[in-house]
Amino acid sequence: MQPKTLALVAHDHKKNALLNWVKAHQPTLQQCKLVATGTTGAMLSEHTGLAITRYQSGPLGGDQQIGALIAEGSLDALFFFWDPLNPAPHDPDVKALLRLCSVWNVPVACNEATADMLVTSPLFLSADYQVQKPQY
């Protein structure tokens, strides 16, 4: 079985929350292929030692690179700790990324509570569970 591919993304004010969450779930996450936007990926890799493929920073196209993974059917889940109280200049890109998760039925967690529920589900690493992809 191929490892699940997970994307890790966080806005500036949520990077520490994502780092703490990744550390808490590191034994599970190290079984997965991890990708992240630039700054977030660098921080996570530096503080956890996890192998993380880094794309561009979100505002420079990283959100769209992760969106391309979704559209290609190459992403199994998105963990995006976004900051709803501080609008970012690339909000349209963020909205497009979240929209793609809905279009292609990709599990997405936008806060710690949902991320905890998702990563601790017995279905999370199960080879028996296959997410149903819509046929358009």
From TrEMBL:
Domain MGS-like: 1-136
PROSITE patterns assigned to the protein according to its UniProt record, in alphabetical order: METHYLGLYOXAL_SYNTH (PS01335), MGS (PS51855)
Gene Ontology molecular functions: methylglyoxal synthase activity
Pfam families, A to Z: MGS
Gene3D superfamilies recorded: Methylglyoxal synthase-like domain (3.40.50.1380)
Enzyme nomenclature, EC number: 4.2.3.3
Residues that coordinate or bind substrate: H11, K15, T37, G38, T39, T40, S57, G58, H90
Active-site residue numbers: D63 (proton donor/acceptor)
GO biological process: methylglyoxal biosynthetic process
Gene Ontology cellular-component annotations: cytosol
SMART domains cross-referenced by the UniProt entry: MGS (SM00851)
InterPro entries, per database record: Methylgl_synth (IPR004363), Methylglyoxal_synth_AS (IPR018148), MGS-like_dom (IPR011607), MGS-like_dom_sf (IPR036914)
Enzyme class, UniProt record, top EC level: lyase
HAMAP family from the UniProt entry: Methylglyoxal_synth (MF_00549)
Function: Catalyzes the formation of methylglyoxal from dihydroxyacetone phosphate.
Family from the record: Belongs to the methylglyoxal synthase family.
PANTHER family according to UniProt: METHYLGLYOXAL SYNTHASE (PTHR30492)
Name of the protein described by the UniProt record: Methylglyoxal synthase
Organism: Salinimonas marina
Source organism phylogeny: Bacteria, Pseudomonadati, Pseudomonadota, Gammaproteobacteria, Alteromonadales
